[in-house]
Specification:
By secondary structure, the protein is an alpha/beta fold. The protein has 16 helices and twelve strands. α5 runs antiparallel to α6.
Length: about 350
C-alpha cells in the first residue's frame, strides 16, 4: 500500500515526508522525482504487548510513502513532460498538503488561498483521468464490438462525472464495474486526505477563513487533518523531557506526525493483527475484509498454502484478563477457519501444514 504526498511547491509536503519517514533533513530532494520512504504507525497496543511479552524485537505497522514531484504547472508539464503524472499512478491513495501560512515562507503563487490550491490539484487529477478515458473511448469507437458495450457505457458515465468536475469517487459502481476500472488506475478513484499545514501561530489561534474552509471540506466529504510542519520539526529535535514540556505548553498530547500516520492508516481502511511471543511482537497490516487464510499469507506464503486453523484472541480481552492462560480458561481463545474475517486487534497464531 503506497500513499503519495501531493502539493504545490512550498506547501510543506516534503518536510512532512521527511518527518514521517525519518529521512535526514540534510538530504536534498530534487522535487522533480518521486522519493520513497517508510513511516511507522504508532500503536499503544504494540507498546502494551511488548511490555507483556518482553520480546527480543518489536515491530510496528508501517506504511509506504511517496513524496511525489511538486505541481508547478510549467510549460514543460503542459507539453506532457509531467513527472507528477508518471509517479502518481503507482500510488494507492493521496495526501494533499495545502499551505495556510505566509509568514515563514511566501506562497509560490503569492497570496495564500487553500481553496485555490486544492482546486488546482483537483483539476490536474480530473483532467488526467479525462484524457485516459478519451483515448480509450476513441479506441473502443473504432472497434464497435458487442463485448465492449459495457465498458463503453461505463466510461461514458465516468466522463460525464469528470466533465462536471466531480471525482470518480462520487459515482457508485458494481463489483463488475470496479474490476473493469481497476486497470486504468484513475487518480480520482484513489482515497484522498487533506493535510492543512499551519505555522506556529496558526496552530495556536487558527487561520483566516478557517471555519469556512473546514466546513467546505466536510460538505465535500473530504477528510482532513491540521498539522504544523514547523512545530513537528521542533518536536523531533527535542529530548524526551523537553518534548513533553513543549507539547504541554501547546496543549497537545501527541506529535501531529503520529496523528497523521494513524489517520492515513484508518482512512485507507487498513487494520492490524498481531503475532506475539518471546522472539517478536509484531503488527501486520491488512485491508478490512481480509480472511484468516489471506492474512496468513502476509506472514509467509507457505502458511497461507498450508493453512489449517487460526488461533485467535481479542486484544481487549487480553488486556482485561492479563494473560493467554486466563483467556483459554474463560474460552475467549478460539479457533477460526479460513473464511474468518480478521478484526482489528486480533492476536493470531496460525496452524498450518506444508
Amino acid at each position: 500500500m503506497k500513499i503519495g504526498l501531493v502539493g504545490l511547491p512550498g506547501s510543506g509536503k516534503t518536510t512532512l515526508f521527511k518527518l514521517l519517514t525519518g529521512i535526514s533533513d540534510d538530504l536534498p530532494l530534487s522535487g522533480m522525482e518521486a522519493t520513497t520512504g517508510t513511516a511507522r504507525v504508532p500503536d499503544e497496543r504494540i507498546d502494551y504487548l511488548s511490555k507483556l511479552y518482553k520480546p527480543r524485537k518489536t515491530t510496528y505497522a508501517q506504511i509506504d510513502l511517496v513524496d511525489l514531484p511538486g505541481l508547478n504547472f510549467s510549460e514543460e508539464q503542459k507539453k506532457g513532460k509531467n513527472p507528477f503524472l508518471a509517479a502518481v499512478r503507482n500510488v494507492d491513495a493521496l495526501v494533499a498538503v495545502v499551505q495556510v501560512f505566509a509568514e515563514e515562507a511566501p506562497h509560490v503563487l503569492g497570496a495564500v488561498n487553500p481553496w485555490r490550491d486544492l482546486e488546482m490539484i483537483h483539476t490536474e487529477l480530473v483532467f488526467a483521468d479525462w484524457e485516459v478515458i478519451e483515448k480509450r473511448l476513441e479506441r473502443l469507437g473504432t472497434k464497435k464490438k458487442k463485448e465492449n458495450e459495457t465498458e463503453l457505457k461505463l466510461l461514458q458515465r465516468c466522463r460525464e462525472a469528470l466533465e462536471a468536475e466531480n471525482r470518480l469517487t462520487s459515482l457508485s459502481f458494481t463489483g463488475e464495474e470496479t474490476e473493469l476500472l481497476r486497470g486504468f488506475q484513475f487518480l480520482t478513484l484513489k482515497p484522498l486526505l487533506i493535510v492543512i499545514n499551519l505555522d506556529a501561530e496558526g496552530f495556536k489561534t487558527g487561520f483566516p477563513g478557517r471555519e469556512e474552509f473546514l466546513a467546505g471540506l466536510q460538505e465535500k466529504g473530504l477528510p482532513f487533518l491540521e498539522v504544523s510542519a514547523r512545530i513537528e520539526q521542533e518536536i523531533a529535535e527535542l529530548s524526551a523531557d523537553d518534548r513533553e514540556l513543549f507539547m504541554e505548553d501547546l496543549g497537545i498530547t501527541e506529535p501531529g506526525i503520529d496523528r497523521l500516520a494513524r489517520t492515513v492508516y484508518r482512512h485507507l481502511h487498513l487494520l492490524s493483527f498481531f503475532t506475539v511471543g518471546e522472539d517478536e511482537v509484531k503488527a501486520w497490516t491488512i485491508k478490512e475484509g481480509t480472511t484468516a487464510k489471506k492474512a496468513a499469507g502476509k506472514i509467509h506464503s507457505d502458511i497461507e498454502r498450508g493453512f489449517i486453523r487460526a488461533e485467535v484472541a481479542a486484544y481487549h480481552d487480553l488486556v482485561t484478563h492479563g494473560n493467554m492462560a486466563k483467556l483459554k480458561e474463560k474460552r475467549l481463545f478460539r479457533l477460526e477457519g479460513k473464511d474468518y474475517l480478521v478484526k482489528d486487534g486480533d492476536i493470531i497464531s496460525f496452524r498450518f501444514n506444508v
